[in-house]
Amino acid sequence: MMNALKSVLLSIPIAAATMTPLPLLAMDGAELYVTKTCVACHGKDADTPILPIYPKLAGQSPDYAYNQMVDIKSGARDNGMTAAMRGVMHLVTEEEMRVIADWLATLK
Ligand code: HEC
């Protein structure tokens, strides 16, 4: 495994444990994207993932992105790379995924 990916994966539980939960209404997609660790793999602008084989999320259709998140969380989507992301999906509710998906669609 690449060192960059390894350090991201190792830092996720620490980041999650030290985060103060915020009320959903006070959060927007951009904040959720950072606090729920999506940024660690998909990049600050959601367009420069840490590994080139990881998908770019900026500008995706909100329904497509939302459905992929749901399927990745549930296991309905499962290929060689899916497991990397599934590990953090307990951090987000369906409502939060919706908010993030709507925000991603506004990018680029
Ligand atoms: C540990 C790295 C990692 C983290 C953290 C992560 N993802 Fe992912 N994400 C991936 C990988 C790898 C894929 C591709 C999985 C596959 O091909 O099945 C992916 C796929 C996706 C997709 C589908 C994109 C497409 O084009 O089909 C969406 C949407 C997405 N991630 C959103 C998120 C959101 C939102 C978060 C935060 C809650 C998040 N990801 C956190 C690695 C990660």
TrEMBL record:
Report the residue ranges that make up the Cytochrome c domain in this protein: 24-108
Q: Which UniProt keywords apply?
A: Electron transport, Heme, Iron, Metal-binding, Signal, Transport
Keyword Electron transport on this protein? yes
User: Which top-level group of life is the source organism from?
Assistant: Bacteria
> Which interval of the chain is the signal sequence?
1-26
UniProt GO MF annotations? electron transfer activity; heme binding; metal ion binding
List the Gene3D superfamilies. Answer: Cytochrome c-like domain
Pfam families assigned: Cytochrom_C (PF00034)
Query: What's this protein's name?
Result: Cytochrome c
- From which source organism is this entry? Thiocapsa rosea
